[in-house]
Each structure stands twice: as C-alpha cells, then as structure tokens.
C-alpha cells in the first residue's frame, strides 16, 4: 500500500476511536466498539494500534504536538501576535481540524478533552504524556510572554510563567465550557481576552498589552 493510503487508514482509526471515547468514555468503550465505528477488521486496526491505551495516547500526542508547534512558531516571531489573536487562531485551527467529529449534534473534541482529563487520574502513562505536552506548551507560552515584554507590549514585572499558566487555563476552561454547555465560537474567547488585557488598573499610566 502507498504511504498516503496508510496515513488515511491511520487517520480513519484515530477519528473513529476519538468518537467512541467522546461518546461513551474510555472505560465503557471496547476495541470491538472501535472496530464497528471504523468498519474495519481487527487485523486492520491492530496493524496500527495495539489497543485502547495506544489509541488514546496517539490522539493526545497528536493534539498536543500540533498545539505546541503553533505556539513555538509564534514564539519565534518578533513580536509575537497579541494574545487574544494568537489564542483564537490556535484554538480555531485545533477545533476546525476535528470539526467533522460530532456526537449528538455537538463537536466531539471538547467532550474528548474531558474524557482524557478523567482518564489521567487512573492512567499514569497517559498522565505523564499529558504533563510532558503541557510542559512544552507552557514553555512556549513563556517565550511568547518574554517577546511581549521585550517589545513593550506587556508589563515586565510579572513572571512569564505566571502569564503562561493563566493563558493555558483560559483555553482549557473555554473547552470545558463547550463540553458542558454547548459550542461557542472562538471569537467569544478572543473578545473576552481582548477586553481583559486592555483594562487599566488604578494606575492608568501603567503599561499593558497593546
């Protein structure tokens, strides 16, 4: 088979597994459920993945990898894009890449994120993978904040890692809201961040995000 065919088959399996996990949760999903979802034989699926653990690990690694690359690319720009635009762009691309995955009429990705978080409480290997990915994204965000500070776009008396954690928390919270309360366009998060970062405190002369 051609590499293109192999890649398409792998994509088919990952997307089918993601739907199953988002719909029923990790533990309630069997490999038989995945086989039925993707309409492939056991041999065809096990050629790529040894079981559920490897499937969910691959889904998490792929998502974190694409997010990390996007923020690392932004960190190399001088100055980086403003935080509201950057967050909306990266999250928008992440959601758009999975917009075909739908459960009960709603996007499956936010539900899948919640399922992954829950599974990390039981699965140390998955938890380690998530910690590593989170650390990489956090480090990239730290470099982005340093770029803001060097360009005079952000006050310099705040630790970059504190801003990095806050920006990541805002994205994760927005995804959790979508899982619980239904879809919302990324412009909601973008506009909220834009309003907050443009606020002036008691010292109106202090610098803030441009």
UniProtKB/TrEMBL annotation:
One Pfam assignment: TetR_N
Keywords, sorted A to Z: DNA-binding, Repressor, Transcription, Transcription regulation
InterPro entries: BetI_C, DNA-bd_HTH_TetR-type_CS, Homeodomain-like_sf, HTH-type_TetR-like_transc_reg, HTH_TetR, Tet_transcr_reg_TetR-rel_C_sf
Gene3D superfamilies: Tetracycline Repressor, domain 2 (1.10.357.10)
Molecular function terms, GO-annotated: DNA-binding transcription factor activity; transcription cis-regulatory region binding
Name this polypeptide is given: AcrR family transcriptional regulator
Residues of the DNA-binding region: 30-49
Native source organism of the sequence: Streptomyces luteogriseus
Residue stretches making up the HTH tetR-type domain: 7-67
